[in-house]
Specification:
The protein has 450 residues and is α+β, with helices and mostly antiparallel strands. It has 14 helices and 20 strands. The two termini are 36 Å apart. Bound molecules: flavin-adenine dinucleotide.
């Protein structure tokens, strides 16, 4: 980097450098979604909470938008700051120490680093997302869903304490007992009130080996009925599922995983009792291999170049009573037929009683379903897919669904108000107190421009 590439804002007391090199701005205007490209003025790489505080205090005084970036896997520019500052937390990535049943993590770490640090202690975060290359800060901000969510809730629900810098530049340590309103506005709060610097996470005992059961169903009703049974009786440690194309229709697969207990393998008869699947496959794996299962796909897709293609993804949470009709309706929509060739459809149950972060929105009912339409677009073809996402969102919302907002989905301030429902006032109040200049998280389009 040459000196002309650097701006050191001595007046603001920045110790970090604002990197304005064209290639840096290009990278900061890119994300996993590959659909929105808004370059910032510059990128800061803070190494401390004080560095973040200086940047936010300065940006607040000048009304400059700021976006935090941990792993960079936003889908629609949510981690970008057009004409503003991107705080790249990649250097704030330390994990540890692991003490007792908890671990300290910096927000710029990736979940694969967290797992690598905890497994040698025989421990794991209770819930992991399917992909471990996402950032700690980004997943805690979204909430984080995975196969263990039916038992343990969100990834964010394992946070015991957070160190944050608010949009007002204040450095605060918060927890359920200390500055609790701020704590609850940060977890699953989409980065609207503060930048997470560090989290203390609760850990659970990790198995060394697991058995994965793939249970196949030709009918959606039988699949959903068994998913409900498995979610509520919690017999498996991990429970997900997919809808897959077959000629002339769709088939369904429950993915259920049980731990080996020491030398004993799980008892298939007990675990599969009372279910109505058509056929089953089982496989034994190391726990780490299972947790890192998407890494092999990532490697292949990076090699073919498709990892960098646009990803117009849509994640919805459906109420149980309309799930079958919404799934059937969306999958019959011509705008989603490319999913038959290229994509992944997840459909798995969650128990709303287990989802604790108050800002994580969920539909009515005890059991709800994550319906994730995950597709890859050839360059230049994503526009109609985003439009189809919007149509599917409106259709699902009219049937009681809410978005799980890690989406390539344009949402207006009115949509957000509806999304948060009775929690909107809580979020708006926290925003007013902790981000009074409205500089944080503008990429979500939550607030009308002042
Ligand atoms: C291949 C793949 C698989 C996935 N699978 C799952 C899954 O199984 N379950 C699931 O729940 N999600 C899943 N996701 C979605 C993923 O969890 C979210 O996109 C997540 O927000 C990405 O976080 P990030 O840090 O990598 O991204 P970033 O783009 O860095 O951040 C995402 C958002 O969080 C904000 N943010 C980042 N860091 C901070 C911080 N320190 N403080 C405050 N705000 C911050 C950003 O400003 C941005 O708005 C998957 C994503 C991918 C690409």
């Amino acid at each position: 980097m040459t000196s002309s590439d650097r701006v050191v804002s001595a007046s603001a007391g920045f110790v970090e450098l604002l990197d304005t090199r064209p290639e840096t701005l290009r990278e900061a205007a890119a994300d996993f979604g590959g659909l929105v490209h808004s370059p910032p003025l510059g990128v800061l790489r803070p190494r401390s909470a004080a560095g973040i505080g200086d940047a936010l205090a300065y940006a607040g005084r000048h009304g400059i938008p700021v976006a935090a970036r941990s792993g960079g896997h936003s889908l629609y520019g949510q981690g970008q700051a057009p004409g503003g500052i991107v705080l790249d937390l990649g250097e704030l990535n330390a994990v540890g120490p692991v003490t007792g049943d908890r671990v300290e993590v910096r927000a710029g770490a990736l979940w694969r680093d967290v797992l690598a640090a905890t497994l040698p202690h025989g421990l794991t975060p209770p819930v992991l997302t399917d992909y471990l290359g996402a950032g700690v800060g980004g997943v805690l901000s979204a909430g984080g869903l995975g196969g263990a969510s039916h038992r343990h809730g969100l990834v964010a629900d394992s946070a015991l304490e957070l160190e944050v810098v608010t949009g007002a530049g204040e450095h605060v340590v918060c927890s359920p007992d200390r500055h609790s309103a701020l704590f609850h506005a940060v977890l699953a709060g989409l980065g609207q009130v503060a930048v997470i610097v560090r989290a203390t996470l609760r850990l659970s005992p990790a198995p060394t080996r697991v058995r994965r059961y793939c249970l196949y169903y030709s009918g959606l009703d039988g699949y959903l009925s068994d998913q409900r049974l498995l979610a509520t009786d919690r017999r498996f440690a991990h429970l997900e599922g997919q809808v897959r194309p077959v000629p002339g229709g769709w088939t369904h697969m429950i993915e259920a995983v049980a731990a080996h207990r020491g030398a004993s393998a799980p008892d298939d008869g007990t675990l599969l009792g009372g279910l109505s699947f058509d056929s089953a496959e089982t496989e034994d794996l190391g726990h780490a291999e299972f947790a890192n299962r998407v890494a092999a796909d990532e490697e292949i897709l990076r090699t073919t170049g498709e990892w960098r293609y646009p990803h117009p993804w849509l994640n919805l949470l459906l109420p149980e009573d309309t799930a079958a009709s919404v799934v059937t309706g969306v999958l019959a929509d011509p705008g989603f037929q490319d999913l038959r060739e290229n994509g992944l459809i997840l459909l798995y149950p969650l128990l709303t009683g287990a989802l604790r972060a108050p800002l994580f929105r969920r539909p009515r009912g005890e059991v709800v379903l994550l319906f994730a339409l995950l597709r890859t677009a050839a360059p230049g073809t994503a526009g109609p897919m985003v439009a189809a996402n919007r149509a599917a969102y409106e259709y699902a919302r009219a049937n009681g669904a809410v978005a799980y907002p890690v989406n390539a989905l344009p949402m207006s301030p009115a949509d957000w108000r509806e999304h948060y429902g009775s929690r909107w006032e809580t979020l708006a109040e926290a925003k007013g107190v902790h981000d009074p200049h409205g500089i944080l998280g503008r990429g979500h389009g939550m607030w009308a421009p002042a």
